[in-house]
């Protein structure tokens, strides 16, 4: 099994956190715009405005940057999911599911180039679910939502894997603006959960 590169240290002060955020944003922009072939720590340091020595304090190599971008994406996914659930509170389970699907698609559409590199070229640097706290948090959120909706919390893991496959498969390998993607993914997941059919107007 491939070892996941880890950062050398975690930023503690606001200035350090800002520097790390700038480094990751620069890395994301290079990968999204020019791909992995043009990706190196010197370019990241130059674009971020952070000295190469400071970059190496946190990230020993570009593989550690890739792993950190995978982690950042997980954190953004969790935040988007929480926001979607808060926004759709009190609505039907199907409407809440649609809100979560829409949030996931919007998140990926914002950085399609980056996600194509992370998911298609370097998926090995995504922390495996068994040791990934973000995956555990996502699983807990979905299990709690299923329980609240009167469903089976034990379905949370498979639902997440299905959603992940559908979002990446339909969005990254097809036209990201294709009409009806949100509805198609929601329908597929709702079918698995045996939720009521969508009402057509």
Can you walk me through this structure?
By secondary structure, the protein is an all-alpha fold. It contains 9 helices and no strands. The protein is elongated. The model has no long low-confidence stretch (mean pLDDT 90).
**Spans with pLDDT under 50 lasting ≥5 residues?**
none
The percent range for helix content is 55-70%
Order of helices and strands: HHHHHHHHH
Tell me what portion of residues adopts beta-strand conformation. under 5%
Report the structural category: mainly alpha
* Largest beta-sheet characterization: none
* Count of helical regions: 9
Summarize the structure.
The chain is mainly α. It has helices at residues 14-34, 41-48, 52-58, 62-87, 93-110, 112-121, 133-148, 156-172, 181-193. It is elongated.
SSE layout and pairing:
Blueprint: H1 14-34, H2 41-48, H3 52-58, H4 62-87, H5 93-110, H6 112-121, H7 133-148, H8 156-172, H9 181-193
Protein name: TetR/AcrR family transcriptional regulator
Keywords: DNA-binding, Transcription, Transcription regulation
InterPro entries: Homeodomain-like_sf, HTH-type_TetR-like_transc_reg, HTH_TetR, TetR_C_15
Features:
single chain, 201 residues, mainly alpha, 9 helices, 0% strand, elongated, Homeodomain-like_sf, transcription regulation
